[in-house]
Design goal:
alpha/beta, 12 strands, 24% strand, 7-stranded parallel β-sheet, globular, 2 domains, Hypothetical Protein Yjia, Chain: A,domain 2
C-alpha cells in the first residue's frame, strides 16, 4: 500500500564504505514478495559497480530498467541535477513501482538528500518512508567506524583538532544521527561483548530512541525495513548534524579511480593482489568484477581494507567484453600508478 496521499514511499539506505548497503538491498529485492521496487544507486567513482551487482540479481520484481545509477557525484551534492531526474524517470515506469530504495554512496550525507523531498515537485509524489543506516559491526566492535583505519589514524595524529576535522568520523556520525533504523552488519563476525561495544558506539551518536538490528549478510526481514510510514522529510530539519548551516560540502579528502584487469587463473590470485595493495596503500575500498579463465561466470570482488570477499555472481553475457574493472577508493593522494600496476598484474 502506498503512503498517504498516494505518494510512493522511499527508503534511504545510507552507511559508510563497505558497511554492507548493497548486500542489504540485494536481500530486500530477493524477498520483495511481489512488491515492485525501484533502486537508485549513487556511486562514488566512475563505474557503477553496485548497480551492476544489483542488476545481476535477475529479480522479476526489480527488472534492470528499475535500477537507476548515478555515478557522476555524491547525490547529496547534486540533488537538482541528478536526484529529481532520477525520481522522474522511476515514476514514469509502467507498471508503477510500489517502493523506491536509494543507496547513497559511502561518503554521502543523508540530511540534504532527505531535505530534497521537501521540494513541492517531489513532495507531492514521493515520501521518505524511513532512513536506514548500515554500520560495520565488526569494525565498531574493534573501536573503528571502518575496517581499515590506518590512513585515518595518521591523519588524526597530524591534526590537533581531531574528530571535528575528521571527515570519516563526521560522515559516520551524520549518517547515524539521521537514521530511523540502524542495521548492525557482519554480526556473525563478532561475539556478544563485541556487539555490546558496537551498539554502545552507535547509541552515543543517536539523539533519539532508534532500534539497532543485527544482521548477517544483509538478511533482514523486509517488514522491518519497509512500510515505516514516517514521512521523514517533515522531521529531518530537527535532526542535528555536523554540517548544519553549510550550503554545501565536498569530498576532497578522498580519491577514486578504476583499474582494468584481464582474466586471472584463480580467484585467490586477485584476492591476494587486493589484500596486498590494501596493506601497502591508503586504500579503504575495492569493488568490481574480474573474469576467470575457463569460467562462464564473472567473479565479484569486494574488499574493505585487507579483508577480501569474492564469489561468482552471474554469467557473462554473449556480447559482453570479458574485461575486469575494479573501483579503488581511498584517502586523498593514492598512488594510482602503483596501485594500478599491482592490481592489473
Amino acid at each position: 500500500m502506498n503512503a498517504p496521499l498516494n505518494r510512493i514511499p522511499c527508503t534511504v539506505v545510507t552507511g559508510f564504505l563497505g558497511a554492507g548497503k548493497t548486500t542489504l538491498i540485494r536481500h530486500l529485492l530477493q524477498n520483495a514478495n511481489g512488491k515492485r521496487i525501484a533502486v537508485v544507486v549513487n556511486e562514488f567513482g566512475d563505474v557503477g559497480i553496485d548497480g551492476e551487482i544489483l542488476k545481476g540479481c535477475g529479480i522479476e520484481d526489480c527488472p534492470e530498467e528499475n535500477i537507476v545509477e548515478l555515478a557522476n557525484g555524491c547525490i547529496c551534492c547534486t540533488v537538482a541535477d541528478d536526484f529529481v531526474p532520477a525520481i522522474d524517470q522511476i515514476l514514469a515506469r509502467k507498471p508503477a513501482v510500489d517502493h523506491i530504495l536509494i543507496e547513497t554512496s559511502g561518503l554521502a550525507l543523508p540530511k540534504p538528500l532527505v531535505q530534497a523531498f521537501q521540494w513541492p515537485s517531489v513532495k507531492s509524489r514521493v515520501t521518505v518512508d524511513g532512513v536506514v543506516a548500515v554500520v560495520d559491526g565488526a569494525a565498531l566492535a574493534d573501536g573503528m567506524v571502518a575496517s581499515d583505519m590506518d590512513a585515518l589514524a595518521a591523519q588524526r595524529e597530524a591534526d590537533d583538532q581531531l574528530d571535528h576535522d575528521d571527515p570519516i568520523e563526521e560522515v559516520f556520525e551524520d549518517q547515524v544521527a539521521c537514521a530511523d533504523l540502524v542495521i548492525l552488519s557482519k554480526s556473525d563476525l563478532i561475539d556478544a561483548a563485541g556487539r555490546e561495544r558496537a551498539e554502545r558506539t552507535v547509541n552515543a551518536h543517536l539523539p533519539r530512541a532508534v532500534k539497532i538490528v543485527a544482521a548477517k549478510e544483509g538478511q533482514v526481514d523486509p517488514a522491518i525495513l519497509l512500510g515505516l510510514g514516517l514521512a521523514v522529510e517533515d522531521q529531518i530539519d530537527a535532526r542535528k548534524t555536523h554540517h548544519d548551516g553549510l550550503d554545501d560540502h565536498d569530498h576532497d579528502d578522498f580519491d577514486s579511480f578504476v583499474v582494468e584487469v584481464g582474466a586471472i587463473a584463480d580467484p585467490s590470485e586477485i584476492a591476494a593482489r587486493v589484500a596486498a595493495v590494501a596493506e601497502k596503500e591508503n586504500v579503504l575500498r575495492v569493488k568490481g568484477f574480474v573474469p576467470v579463465d575457463g569460467k562462464p561466470m564473472r567473479l565479484l570482488v569486494q574488499a574493505v581494507g585487507a579483508r577480501v570477499n569474492h564469489y561468482f555472481d552471474r554469467a557473462w553475457a554473449p556480447a559482453e567484453e570479458r574485461l575486469g574493472r575494479l573501483v579503488v577508493i581511498g584517502e586523498k593522494g593514492l598512488r594510482q600508478d602503483a596501485i594500478t600496476a599491482a592490481l592489473a598484474g
